[in-house]
């Protein structure tokens, strides 16, 4: 049986490694030129991206290169050079967004699989066939599409791979084709520099141009002013419906600009959901426990399962972002031997361990600390916070870059967290 692919975001080389360690089958990312995450893409140098591809291939994993910006005429020669240079690195596919770039990439790199970005907004058989005819091997379908329409596309084009988003930020505009950021700040969303203007609170005014009268419309209490702020997508509890359809080849997580912890937790949660599906079980509470620990704008299952006109809970009207159920306090170094502080940590704090699935972590009790199990989860408590130079700290805080010795070796990029308190949540609310 061919299993569905789990595709995670990789905004940096570190996030690429973390996504793979926590369960991703493939990642997507790019070098800044012509990527829709220019600010994130700058964190990948050509050398880092090449190293990431080698890292993936050594583990039987895949890397898809994003060349999904919308180029201007003045950039076409640079685009050609970029495509040729990227092809030399031998990623497993290009992700492109426009018919012209798709055709150009097919001409310049004829052996390269080409994935059509969700920005192309494919929602029907006719459009899918056009893109397949000019070289697309996979369609990353519009986020507004339904499973019913996916089935129709697969029925007509059985060799065409279909990829769907299952988690991450949503855009209030069709497939991200928005110009508000361009209008307000000159940052062009489809050139990779969206300022997320839809996440801002807005005040409403009424004006009479004949008299010059201007007055503010009073907000109904509890309605909120984040009028374009979409909730985040979360389909972890719907993996059975998605995979039962038999037409989805890859499930995709959004978030190249998000944290390393986000890369880890989303990959882990969806890995569990997918593996459970093939094992014939569903444990939604387990997936949601992880996903609720992330900062989010509230979650929605959006439109893949339900049609847009059936949904009335896809907007977060009274806040732009909320803290998740947990606060990350630290992460191990890549060797897994030392703790790098991200939030105030003291001896005796009960830190929940977040590690890749099937990790083997020793239960120890020594002068440095203890590791123990409680209610099916693994925890760490420090007895002392000793850095590499031997200094013992009463507490370490965010910004303290001294590696703190761990009582045992953990897998690379193991995270530690504590339950979040209300006073940690700084997200603006009305």
UniProtKB/TrEMBL annotation:
Pfam families: Peptidase_U32
A single GO molecular function term of this UniProt record: peptidase activity
InterPro entries: Peptidase_U32, RNA/ubiquinone_mod_enzymes
Keywords: Hydrolase, Protease
Any one GO BP annotation for this protein: proteolysis
Similarity comment text for this entry: Belongs to the peptidase U32 family.
Protein name per UniProt: U32 family peptidase
């Amino acid at each position: 049986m061919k299993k569905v692919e789990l595709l995670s975001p990789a905004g940096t080389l570190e996030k690429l490694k973390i996504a793979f360690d926590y369960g991703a089958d493939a990642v997507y990312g790019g070098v800044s030129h012509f990527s829709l995450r220019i600010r994130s893409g700058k964190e990948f140098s050509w050398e880092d991206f090449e190293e990431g591809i080698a890292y993936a291939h050594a583990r039987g994993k895949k890397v898809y290169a994003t060349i999904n910006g919308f180029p201007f005429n003045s950039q076409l020669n640079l685009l050609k050079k970029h495509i040729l240079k990227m092809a030399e690195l031998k990623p497993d596919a290009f992700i492109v967004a426009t018919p012209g770039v798709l055709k150009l990439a097919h001409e310049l790199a004829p052996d390269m699989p080409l994935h059509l970005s969700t920005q192309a907004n494919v929602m029907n058989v006719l459009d899918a066939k056009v893109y397949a005819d000019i070289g697309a091997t996979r369609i990353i379908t519009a986020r507004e599409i339904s499973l019913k329409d996916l089935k129709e596309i697969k029925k007509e084009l059985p060799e065409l791979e279909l990829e769907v988003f299952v988690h991450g930020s949503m855009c209030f505009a069709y497939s991200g084709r928005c110009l508000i950021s361009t209008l307000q700040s000159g940052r062009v969303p489809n050139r990779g520099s969206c300022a997320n203007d839809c996440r801002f609170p807005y005040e409403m005014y009424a004006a009479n141009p004949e008299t010059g009268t201007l007055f503010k419309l009073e907000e109904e209490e509890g309605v909120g002013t984040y009028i374009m702020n979409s909730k985040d997508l979360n389909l972890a509890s719907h993996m059975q419906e998605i995979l039962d359809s038999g037409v989805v080849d890859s499930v995709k997580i959004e978030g190249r600009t998000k944290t390393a912890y986000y890369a880890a937790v989303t990959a882990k949660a969806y890995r569990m959901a997918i593996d459970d599906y093939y094992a014939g079980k569903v444990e939604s509470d387990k997936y949601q426990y992880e996903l609720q620990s992330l900062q989010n704008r509230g979650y929605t299952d959006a439109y893949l399962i339900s049609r847009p006109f059936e949904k009335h809970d896809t907007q977060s009207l009274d806040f732009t972002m909320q803290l998740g159920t947990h606060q990350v306090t630290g992460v191990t170094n890549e060797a897994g031997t030392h703790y790098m502080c991200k939030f105030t940590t003291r001896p005796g704090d009960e830190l929940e361990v977040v590690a890749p699935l099937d990790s083997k972590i020793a239960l120890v009790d020594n002068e440095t600390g203890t590791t123990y199990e409680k209610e099916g989860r693994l925890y760490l408590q420090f007895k002392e916070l000793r850095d590499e130079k031997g200094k013992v700290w009463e507490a370490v805080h965010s910004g303290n870059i001294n590696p703190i010795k761990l009582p045992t070796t953990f897998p690379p990029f193991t995270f530690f967290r504590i339950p979040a308190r209300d006073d940690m949540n700084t997200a603006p609310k009305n």
